[in-house]
Amino acid sequence: MTDDARRSAPAAARNRDPILQALKPHLPPSGLVLEVASGTGEHILHLAQALPGLRWQPTEPQPEGRASIDAWAAGLPNVLPALPLDAAGDDWPVLRADVVLCINMIHIAPWAAAEGLFAGAARLLGPGGLLALYGPYHRKGQKLEPGNAAFDAELRQRDPAWGLREVGEVAALAGRCGFGAPEVVEMPANNLMLLFRREG
């Protein structure tokens, strides 16, 4: 794989350290982390380098994205080759995981992708297993910050099925899929980390 396959997302360089610091206390010392919608692959590269005791399984629907992920992760023994995965579908290429991670996906996808994400994570995770979501969210009764409001409007203009999700709606979906209430971690730039545990 040549460096030409590597894609870059400027936001990844800004948020990868805060994401690592927010996740680290909640991750097991070993096991498999499945990342849904790995994007360019820059997040999983950073996390895998910092947490070598874990095995990391990246996924991405598009072949160009998978090529970028594999190029970034080349030579890292704890990162598996990227697999195709449609979050909204029932046919996931992984049967079991200790952690499911999803960064910046559910606001740039139809709600069916969020439903599929929770259903799929519920199938893969055992009791106490972690589903971690990162991104911008809306909180009921609170006005969106100007940056997030503009981003939300832009997303909805691009696709009416997209847009920032309300934390309570995401938590309700999680509950229907067998997860407990989220631990909410405040993140820089008006983002949140939502940490869900699979109930037994």
TrEMBL record:
<dbReference type="InterPro" id="IPR010342">
    <property type="entry name" value="DUF938"/>
</dbReference>
<protein>
    <submittedName>
        <fullName>DUF938 domain-containing protein</fullName>
    </submittedName>
</protein>
<feature type="region of interest" description="Disordered">
    <location>
        <begin position="1"/>
        <end position="20"/>
    </location>
</feature>
<dbReference type="InterPro" id="IPR029063">
    <property type="entry name" value="SAM-dependent_MTases_sf"/>
</dbReference>
<dbReference type="Pfam" id="PF06080">
    <property type="entry name" value="DUF938"/>
</dbReference>
